[in-house]
Amino acid sequence: MITHLFLIAFLFTFDLFCETVERTKSNIDHWKQAITTPSPWLKSREQLISLLPKEAVVAEIGVLRGDFSSQILELTKPEHLFLIDCWDLCDFFEAGLSDYQLVVSKFDNNPKVSIIKNTSSEAAKNFPDNYFDWVYIDANHSYDAVKNDLETWFPKVKNGGFISGHDYFVPGTPGTPNYYSYLVVPAVNEFVAKYNLEITYLTNEPIASYAIQIRK
Ligand SMILES: C[S@@+](CC[C@H](N)C(=O)[O-])C[C@H]1O[C@@H](n2cnc3c(N)ncnc32)[C@H](O)[C@@H]1O
Asked: Which domain holds residue 24?
């Protein structure tokens, strides 16, 4: 009896696994051709953010140790930079309390920086619509999470502002890791199609960053 139950549970789990792999593969295949080449192509995300508004109101969603936050500060001199991450509040594999503490030690004495320890969705509720000149999304990279982040921050960005983000790549293509759960490409492509927008800037890196100019 126990052997039978074990066998059924095993077959059920294996079937679910196969289905998930197939679904992920077909998503990726479906969107493989969808990466377009906007003009101009850029060599790095540092170059990309240098083209975004300066002395602006900015948020980075997904901060980790604040490495890119330093670049944002140095290259774009924001009027104010909000650093939003759930760190140890989430059970996200990558980030923990020590990363949060490092970010606090780096930026807490900077009056132009606010550190917000919260999830992306919850943090967004504290800002009025049309508040940000641009946001940089680099949090959870699953399809659902990226889709949710794009929809959540879209109303918060001013008309003419930008939603930018990281990890716009098809996992497993040359130069990219096999992170098959990273489905930024389909989420971004569906978002631009839905709102009749386009990718304004895309970096020419295997692990690319994008920026979409918002038109409402
Ligand atoms: C790839 S790291 C960010 C790297 C950073 N942008 C950089 O370039 O140095 C992803 C971060 O997103 C955070 N994160 C994941 N899911 C999140 C969520 N739902 N809300 C807020 N932060 C989240 C994690 O805690 C982690 O620190």
From this structure: 1-34
